Amino acid sequence: MENSKLKVLVSPISPFVEEKDGIYSGFEVELWEAIAREMRVNFEYEKHNFQEIIPMINKSEADIAFASITMNEKREELIDFSHPTFSSGLKILLSKNRGNIDINNSLKDFFKKGYKQFIKPLFYLLLIIFIFGNILFFLERDYGSISHSYFPGVFNATWVSMAVILKTTGNFFVYEVHSWAGRLVMVLAQIASLAALGLIVGSITSFLTSKKIKSIIEGPKDLKGKKVVTVEGTTSEYVLDTFGAIVIPVKNIEEAYEELKNNKVDALVFDSPVLEHYLLNGGNNWSELIGEEFDKQDYAFALPKITHIRKDVNLAILNIRENGVYNNIYKKYFGEKE
Questions:
Q1: Global pTM?
Q2: Is-contact 43 36, C-beta < 8 A?
Q3: Amino acid 124: pLDDT
Q4: Has domain 94-99+217-294 been given CATH number 1.10.260.40?
C-alpha cells in the first residue's frame, strides 16, 4: 500500500480537528497521521461540513473520514466504521447569565399568557373601589365637596375611594371626606382592598417563580420543552428529540456557541470533550457545564462499505494502542486518563 494516496474527509471540530491556513492539527488528525505511518500510505485532506461527510463516504467519494463521528446503528446501515478511537458522551452547556431576568421575554410571556392570572384580582380591586365610591357618594353628596348629581358625584367619590385605597396624598387627593361614616367607609375600603392587592402581588410572585422554576436545567430530563441548540446531523439531534426538547440545529459548533451566548436558546447540548475543551480555552468566562455526562458513545473513523483499507486501519489502531502512541496523543489533548 506504499503507493496509495487516500482521500481523507475532515470537518473542523476542536480539539479533534483544527485547521489554520490549510494546516491541520488536533487529536484525530494526529491519531490518523500515526495510523497512516503504520500503514505506510500517502493521503490528502479535504474539508467539508459535517453534514456532507456521511453521504460522501456512503457514495465512496472518499476513502476515510473523521470529525468526532459517533458510531451508531443508523450510520452502520450506510457506512462502515473502524475500531473505536475515543469514548465520549453528551453534556449540557448553559450561560452563566441564565439566572438574570430577561425583561423583554418576561413582558412577552406576560402579554401572551401571564396576564390571565391577574384579571380576577384586578377585577376585585376595581369592584371594591367602585362599590365604596358609590357608598361614599351617598354619604358625602350633601356636604358640598362632592357633586350632588349621580354621575359626576360617583366619579368624584370613586376618585376619593381610589386615592384612599392606594394611599395617595397631596394634589392627587383633591376631595375631603367630611362625615365620620364616610371616613369609616374609607377605612373599610382600605381593609378590603388589602385582600385584592395581596392577590395581585401573589399572582406576580407566582408568575415570576413559575418562570424561574421552568427555566431550571439540571440534567437531560429538564430539557423537555426547552430550546436547545446542537450541530445539525449529529447524534445529539436524535437524543434531544427523545427528551422532548425543541431542537435548534445549526451548521457548526461555533454557531451553537453564539446562539447560547446571545440568549436565543436555553441550552446547548453536544459532545462533552468538545465542550470541555471550549471552556478551557475561554468559554468559562460566560458559560458552564452542568450535570453528568449522558448518552455514552464511541467515535470511530468512517469508511465506505466496500473498502480495502478497513483491516489495515484497524490493525494500525491496535498497534498504536499497544505501543503507547495513542496514550501520548490522548495525554496531549485531554490529560491523563482517569
A1: 0.63
A2: yes
A3: 73
A4: no
